[in-house]
User: Fold this.
Amino acid sequence: MKKKVSKASKRRLMIFGILSIMAIVYFFVTLFGYTYSYISLKKEENNLKNQLVFLQDKKANLKIEIQKLNDPEYVARYAKENYLYSADGEYVLKIDTNEETEDNVVTNNNNVYYIIGIILFLICLLIFRRKKKEK
Assistant:
């Protein structure tokens, strides 16, 4: 024999079900957001580590450059190459070879996870409404 389930208990189950689904959707949206943030921070950490190594190499090169600048012959050659300095009877020809580089722009798409959560929530609402109409 089937027990009759009252309308009040059906309503309670429906409300509890909707709240549970909302909590689950919120959990997954938050989880995806934190995961994305974690991955972004890891990439930033790796970039900063690479930048640190680059700057340490640059520091070492600059120390070597300081030592070289104490040599008068190097200073004269440096002035000729970089500042177009010439001695009497010399001609200076400068050939410019600049290469253009493109900057990589990284966009932050945190809102994608919230949109996915809203879409999942709306799908759940449509499913519950359809079930309600069928009964």
In short: The radius of gyration is 34 Å. The longest helix spans residues 7-68. The chain is about 75% helix and 0% strand.
